[in-house]
Write a structure and sequence with these properties.
This protein has a 7-stranded mixed β-sheet with strand order 3-2-1-4-5-11-10, sandwiched between helices. It has 2 domains: 185 residues, 3-Layer(aba) Sandwich (Rossmann fold), CATH 3.40.50; 61 residues, N-terminal domain of TfIIb. It contains 8 helices and 11 strands.
């Protein structure tokens, strides 16, 4: 996944109502239950950085990693505007979560808003999990969310239209899915139309992404193979196990101490 151009520029406007504070509180709780002394977090696929800022407000030192220069440009601008974040608390790096190896270990690694669903093969999942293991200290915690296979099959993706606006622009984004059930994949075509309120100029940009929905047993296999223990699955923002209707689930795993 590598959001480009206008998709990155207007990302935060589309998700202005996303509950970053509540999500950070939930993730911090999952971390603290397993690693009470955790202070450093690696955010894998950090996007525009707003989650990093919320984790910093919860007392963590955060490194955000993303493979999209356009998204990171927005993230750094968001950091500049966040006057309540102390200098040196948040940093952003360009990199791929299947390849990145940090020069130092983190207490926790998080990867949210379906970044792991953009890992479309067992091999890429394995690479991301192995790298995460190596980037964590003993006792460190990995948390990621994803499209939950049973939920996707219960309620298949359908075309959607979403609108947003501010004082300068009106946005209309259409998403059209194409399902490949044998491979557990969804091809998602996004069409973004922008209308400049001052000039009336219309622009349209199309991008296509491939996503995979994962089943808990697939994730467990790769996590345990990499060396993780204490693997648990939850319906997102709860402490309940995912059910058939759960579309968004998250998984927590711990690096053994010895």
């Amino acid at each position: 996944m590598s959001y480009l151009g206008k998709h990155a520029e207007f990302y935060d406007l589309f998700y202005k109502d996303k509950p970053y504070y509540d999500e950070a509180l939930y993730v911090a709780d999952l971390i603290q239950r397993r690693c009470p002394d955790a202070r450093s977090v690696l955010d894998l696929g950090c996007g525009t950085g707003l989650r990093c800022l919320e984790m910093a407000r919860h007392g963590y030192k955060v490194t955000g990693l993303d493979q999209s220069p356009a998204m990171l440009a927005v993230a750094r601008q968001n950091l500049l505007m966040a006057n309540d974040i102390p200098n040196g608390t948040v940093d952003f790096l360009l990199g791929d979560i299947t390849e990145y190896l940090s020069p130092h270990s983190y207490d926790a690694a998080i990867s949210l808003f379906h970044v792991f669903s953009y890992l479309t093969t067992e091999e890429s999942l394995r690479e991301a999990v192995v790298r995460s293991f190596k980037n964590l200290r003993p006792g460190g915690v990995l948390i990621f969310d994803y499209w939950h296979g049973p939920g996707v099959l219960h309620d298949l993706p359908s075309p959607r239209t979403r609108s947003a606006e501010d004082s300068h622009v009106t946005l209309v984004r259409k998403s059209v899915p194409r399902h490949f059930p044998d491979a557990h994949l969804v091809e998602l075509t996004l069409s973004l139309e922008t209308i400049d309120k001052q000039t009336g100029i219309h622009e349209r940009v199309d991008e296509t992404y491939l996503l995979r929905y994962w089943f808990p047993e697939e994730l467990e296999r790769q996590l345990e193979r990499a060396g993780f223990q204490e693997v648990r699955h939850y319906s997102w923002l709860t402490h309940s196990v995912p059910i058939r209707e759960t579309w968004q689930a998250c998984t927590v795993a711990v690096v053994p101490v010895s």
